[in-house]
């Protein structure tokens, strides 16, 4: 989930360009269920971003630590660590929002 400390990173030109290139590389499909999601999926960081690693490009911009996911698969990825309810979902930026 995007947090206050990561807002500048997720809005940066470097991340937006990098995100677009990664999504193209997986042909706009979720890497878990393989369904086409276009650009509406979430580029998931396998290593959670923290204030300590947000400026470490080895973590934030390393293709080995990323996975493109549809919202359903991203919810399942986080189901062990986040409460799951029917009235909420993740938006395109990974924020938990009401349905």
Describe it.
With 99 residues, this protein is of the alpha+beta class. It has one domain (4-98). The protein is 28% helix and 14% strand. The chain has helices at residues 7-10, 13-25, 57-60, 71-77; strands spanning 42-45, 66-69, 88-90, 96-98. The strands form two sheets. Strands 1-2 form a two-stranded antiparallel ribbon.
**What is the gyration radius calculated from CA atoms?**
13 Å
Tally of helical runs: 4
**E-strand count:** 4
The structural domain count equals: 1
Q: How confident is the prediction overall: mean pLDDT? A: 89
Beta-strand residue percentage: 5-15%
Largest sheet: 2 strands, antiparallel
Share of residues in helices: 25-40%
Helix/sheet category: alpha+beta
- Give the low-confidence spans: none
Strand line-up across the major sheet? 1-2
User: SSE order, as H and E?
Assistant: HHEHEHEE
Q: Which term fits the overall shape?
A: globular
The rounded distance between the terminal residues' Cα atoms is: 16 Å
Oligomer: single chain
How is this fold's topology laid out?
Blueprint lengths: L6 H4 L2 H13 L16 E4 L11 H4 L5 E4 L1 H7 L10 E3 L5 E3 L1
Antiparallel strand pairs: 1-2, 3-4
Short descriptors:
single chain; 99 residues; alpha+beta; two-stranded antiparallel ribbon; 4 helices; 28% helix; globular
Quick recap:
The protein is an alpha+beta fold and 99 residues long.
């Amino acid at each position: 989930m995007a947090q206050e400390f990561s807002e500048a990173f997720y809005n940066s030109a470097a991340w937006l360009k990098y995100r677009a290139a990664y999504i193209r590389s997986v042909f706009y499909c979720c890497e878990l269920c393989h369904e086409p999601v276009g650009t509406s999926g979430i580029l998931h960081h396998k290593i959670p971003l923290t204030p300590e690693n947000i400026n470490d490009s080895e973590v934030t911009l390393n293709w080995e630590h990323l996975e493109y996911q549809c919202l359903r698969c991203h919810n399942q990825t986080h189901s062990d660590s986040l409460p799951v309810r029917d009235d909420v979902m993740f938006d395109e930026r990974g924020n938990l929002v009401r349905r």
